[in-house]
Amino acid sequence: MTALSSNLGYPRIGENREWKKALESFWAGKLEESQFLEEMEKIRLGNLQKQKDAEIDMIPVGDFTFYDQMLDAAVMFGMVPERFAYAGGKVPLNTYFAMARGNDTAVACEMTKWFNTNYHYIVPEFEGKKLTLTENKPLNAYREAKEKLNINGKPVLIGPYTFLKLSKGYENSDIPAFLLQLIPLYAQVLQELETEGVKWIQIDEPILATSITKEEMKTVAEIYKQLNQAAPALQIMLQVYFDSIEWYEEVTQLPVQGIGVDFVHGLEKTIENLKSNGFPTDKVLGAGIIDGRNIWRSDLQERWELITTLSNYVPADRIWLQPSCSLLHVPVTVAQEKALDQTIHSALAFADEKLVEVTTLTNALHNGESAIVEAIQESRNARLKLAQSPARNRAGIQYSARTISEQQTKRTLPFNERRKQQQDAFSLPLLPTTTIGSFPQTTEVRQARQKWRKGEWSAEAYEQFIQNQIKDWIVLQEQIGLDVFVHGEFERTDMVEFFGEKMGGFVFTQKAWVQSYGSRCVKPPIIYGDVEFLQPMTVKESVYAKSLTDKPVKGMLTGPVTILNWSFVRDDLSREEVTNQIALALRKEVEALEAAGIHMIQVDEPALREGLPLKKSAWDNYLNWAVKAFRLATSSVQNTTQIHTHMCYCEFHDFIDAISALDADVISIETSRSHGELVSAFTDQSYDKGIGLGVYDIHSPRIPAVEEMIDIIEQGLQVLEPIQFWINPDCGLKTRKIDETVASLKNMVAATNTIRDRYSVLQES
Ligand code: GLN
Ligand code: ZN
Questions:
Q1: Residues near 618 by beta carbon (within 8 Å), at least 6 away in sequence
Q2: Which of 135, 333, 371, 449 could form a disulfide with 352 if both were Cys (CB 3.0 to 4.6 A apart)?
Q3: Ligand number nearest to the C-alpha of 734
Q4: Average pLDDT estimate for 475-487
Q5: Is 699 a catalytic residue?
């Protein structure tokens, strides 16, 4: 045996998002199926060739997909929901894409976030009908790599327990029946690989990093016993990532031949586990020593020291060095970034550069540290140079972010006392109507921005255009009859990018895209330095909107936790500290808005939920500092200034305390798709602050009827006091058309008026 370098998965999108382009052309009918397949093969083989050129020993195959790896697994097991009218056999491409995107007759499968990442997977639906193996995808991938590139690949497959836990459509009591069907199919896949002479398969079980119960762990043990018996000559690398293994002792005793462990996230716990339980002498350790979730170059000295520690527990020749998780979550290559500041550029490592780090460290395992001294020095110098740069040494900011006082995170008066003052200040009608912030971003708006960015339009021309949009929509909001207005967010493409571009400490790349869901890619900003407020960011537009109306206009900001969670964050400070820096900058913006006469300010936190750690035991700590950062950003205002917030998820139940602790005067929240659940949350627990339950779903072009919204409002009023109740759609309207938006909002106002009439009788009496 010898130490090997390994990879867990490679970004599928291509250096120039060729993957996205091929998919979208195919969907638009601009590519024939055969051309599409050809293009995809080219990208797939290109990705493999790059890993071969990088001299990775264990190259993953089968991680490539046309949409998503969970969808691939579902389709492979014939788990196509009834509504897609699948007739058996290999699942046709149009059925595959219909599951992902919906078609004229069937709604798409649900999509949700992959653990604590910003990647979304398609949720498989178990409908109880018979599962079959429609194709052996890992085997096909293995054969292709072997034939076309002479690569002895390591097939990658989502593990059965993760697959089960992430699927829906079944009750706990159905689990045995589900597994009874699923496990023989997995066994068959493994047997066919074994027959083919495949040496290793990587089975991904990230669910083992979450807080599963001991009972569940027993099921996992039974599953792997069966899989090992089915194909004893095929070696299984059981791959866990995103946090430490929950049941370390049990997992390391499973009848598999390798365990892949994340040595970046949850490291402390992992080292503790190693110290107290050791590592089995008959297994390979897949050591995920390079961060697959962030974009910074590693300090190879420090990584090498970690590897040295590991080799106290595992002989070096039984270690595979690898990234902590699939490289799907990072962009392809830094080489593409031509415009970045040199100091930042040298301190970055995307997928390709991370593979070089892996092989460099593997070289040291073979030949000793002396073989890589230059690389070590280079990595340290690059990190040191950035560490010493002025952007990372804004002493004032660092000091402020480290010395947050209780006082800074507290409003002067408690909510119930502020409430009275705010009522007097705004004299709003009962059940005030408002929106979440954005109005339709039409082609015209997007084109205007393009023209300005390309220099075809002057800044003045663009600004004038934005003002005209704001003005049009102030008029429309008057006509619709809303009570609290917004300016419409026409000047923003994206709610994080907009703020990142205006604060110090952020940098933007040209091509550092990562897949978010399907063909959709995002280019997260990079927080590389101390975050600094430079000048007011939103005051101009809000003040202009306010000048056009007597109605209150809500200022509109993105919250500190959302900005953090949707960026790549520097790795030399804690996330808490970086969030506090962002919060301090936003606090200045809040103050600037208030000083300019804006007395309602909404601070959106749609990504607060997704930053929750995988381990339940770590939730409190996260929620504590996240809530504190929000309060830091928002609590310096006067009692009469009303702070709003917005979140777009609906697990209110689990977080009602944290949400209440934000101490926002009003929260608007998405509930139109899960109204019943929400109503029950308020039956069980009390919430005293203002709350806008989204009364219609903005994700659909449908115009909701007045009666429908009356019903929803009435349901809400059964559990909430009319005095705390706000009426609004469930999210921003930027993806909707103008006509739809106006018609829906008019109906929303009509529904509100009907309810007000009913209540006015009560009020008078
Ligand atoms: N204010 C933002 C908007 O209306 C909120 C978006 C969001 O919740 N994701 O677009
Ligand atoms: Zn939203």
A1: none
A2: 333
A3: 1
A4: 98
A5: yes
Choose the weakest-confidence range: 104-108, 136-140, 585-589: 104-108
- Closest Cα to atom 1 of ligand 1: 437
Query: Residue 557's beta-bridge partner residues?
Result: 603
Q: What is the pLDDT of residues 670-695, one digit of tens each?
A: 775 566 667 777 777 888 999 998 99
Q: Ligand 1 pocket test: which of 484, 604, 670, 736 has the largest number of ligand atoms within 8 Å of its C-beta?
A: 604
Pocket perturbation via mutation, ligand 1, pick of 646, 730, 735 by most ligand atoms within 8 A of CB: 646
Q: Mean pLDDT check: name the lowest of 209-218, 690-699, 755-764.
A: 755-764
For the record, the structure tokens of 82 come out as 């009834």
Name the residue at shortest CA distance from atom 5 of ligand 1: 732
- Report percent pLDDT > 90 for the chain: 91
**Residue-range domains of the chain with CATH:** 4-79+122-328+338-387 (3.20.20.210), 430-764 (3.20.20.210)
Name the pLDDT band for 737 (thresholds 50, 70, 90). Answer: very high
DSSP-derived 3-state class of residue 603: strand
Output the 3-class SS for 673-719.
CCHHHHHHHHHHCCCCCEEEEECCCCCCCCCCCHHHHHHHHHHHHHH
Q: β-pairing, 503-507 with 526-533?
A: antiparallel
**Cα gap 662→677, rounded to integer Å:** 22
In the β-sheet with 258-262, what is the strand arrangement from edge to edge?
Answer: 4-5, 319-323, 284-290, 258-262, 235-239, 200-204, 154-158, 60-61
Close Cβ partners of 647 (under 8 Å, ≥ 6 residues apart): 604, 605, 606, 608, 609, 659, 667, 669, 670
Return the ligand 1 atom nearest residue 646 CA: 8
- 562, exposed or middle or buried, with CB in 10 Å at 0-12, 13-18, 19+? buried
Residues annotated within the binding site for L-homocysteine are 436-438, 489, 604
| CA torsion, ordered 670, 671, 677, 682, to nearest 10 deg | 80
